[in-house]
Structure formats: structure tokens, C-alpha cells
């Protein structure tokens, strides 16, 4: 069946994986050393049902179901190589770690200049109070750790899987 746009913001004739969202960080963001930080996303590329809140940096879906979430964070430190460890997480309801990706060169001497962590997970959401967030952590030696914004380097997205 063909997609028909009704002129009032609704569609008929096609099935979509909704709600869906995709947010980006477009500039660098400084982070504390060894502190899980929620990125301040500033570009909402997709938000089909207005479920992503740029103020709280949370996605709270309005439909229950199983969702697929994904995130990427490219991190670095101002002086390179100086990065020891990098972790990206997707959290449910602020505390439950749904997924975590870590890059660690293995010892204090195995420092990196930058790292790009990707993480993906499926999770059940209740459609009313459950929410997800992304966090990033950087461990560095002696310079300011940061998220490298712009160029699609820091993003977070997700969508409901069709039953």
C-alpha cells in the first residue's frame, strides 16, 4: 500500500517504526574525568512523535513495545595521546545499564588520541514512564576530556520494532 500524506500531519497506507528519534551533538562538549556524563544533544534530526526531550536529554516513548536503541560517541583529550579509557552507555530509567561499550588499551602506557564507541541494544519500554539516556565517560592523564561534536561523531537514536 502506498504512503499517503493527509496534509494534517498524519499518514495512512504504510506502517512505520514509530516512535523514532535521532539526535546529534554538533559542537565539542567538555567532560569531567572519569564521570559518566549525559551528552547535551543540540540537533534533533528525527523525532516522529515528540518523545525526545532536548532539555532532559531523555527519550520517553508514548507507545509500549520493544525498541532498538543505538549510540555513538567519539571522545578525545585536548593533548594527544592522552586518552586511557572510553565508555559509552545506554541507560534505562537513569540507573539500569542496558548496554555498554568500552575501549581500553590495556595499561597506563597504552594511551590513545581519540576513540569512537558504538553501542546497540533492544529493550522493552512501557510507553508511559520508562525512558532512555546515553552517557559517555573518558579517563585521561592530564588534559581536558571531551566529546568531539559535529560530523556525525556523537549521536543517539532509537525506534519501536514492529510486532
C-alpha Rg (nearest Å):
18 Å
Average of pLDDT: 85
**Major sheet, described briefly?**
7 strands, antiparallel
The helix count comes to 0
- Secondary-structure-derived class: mainly beta
List the helices and strands in order.
EEEEEEEEEEEEEE
Strand content: over 45%
Overall 3D form: elongated
- Low-confidence stretches are none
End-to-end CA span:
18 Å
Task: Describe this entry's structure for a reader.
There is one protein chain. By secondary structure, the protein is an all-beta fold. Helix content is 0%, strand content 50%. The protein has strands spanning 4-5, 11-12, 20-24, 29-30, 43-47, 52-53, 58-59, 65-77, 83-92, 96-103, 114-125, 132-140, 145-147, 154-160. Strands 3, 4, 5, 8, 11, 13 and 14 form a 7-stranded antiparallel β-sheet that branches. A hairpin with a 5-residue loop joins strand 1 and strand 2. The radius of gyration is 18 Å and the shape is elongated.
Amino acid at each position: 500500500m502506498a504512503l499517503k500524506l493527509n496534509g494534517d500531519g498524519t499518514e495512512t497506507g504504510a506502517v512505520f517504526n514509530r516512535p523514532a528519534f535521532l539526535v546529534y551533538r554538533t559542537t565539542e562538549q567538555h567532560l569531567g574525568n572519569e564521570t559518566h556524563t549525559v551528552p547535551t544533544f543540540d540537533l534533533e534530526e528525527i523525532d516522529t512523535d515528540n518523545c525526545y526531550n532536548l532539555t532532559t536529554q531523555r527519550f520517553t516513548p508514548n507507545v509500549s513495545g520493544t525498541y532498538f536503541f543505538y549510540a555513538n560517541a567519539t571522545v578525545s583529550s585536548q593533548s594527544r595521546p592522552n586518552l586511557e579509557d572510553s565508555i559509552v552507555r545506554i541507560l534505562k530509567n537513569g540507573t539500569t545499564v542496558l548496554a555498554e561499550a568500552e575501549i581500553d588499551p590495556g595499561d597506563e602506557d597504552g594511551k590513545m588520541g581519540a576513540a569512537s564507541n558504538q553501542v546497540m541494544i533492544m529493550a522493552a519500554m512501557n510507553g508511559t514512564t520508562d525512558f532512555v539516556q546515553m552517557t559517555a565517560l573518558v579517563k585521561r592523564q592530564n588534559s581536558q576530556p571531551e566529546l568531539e561534536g559535529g560530523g556525525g561523531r556523537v549521536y543517539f537514536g532509537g525506534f519501536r520494532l514492529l510486532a
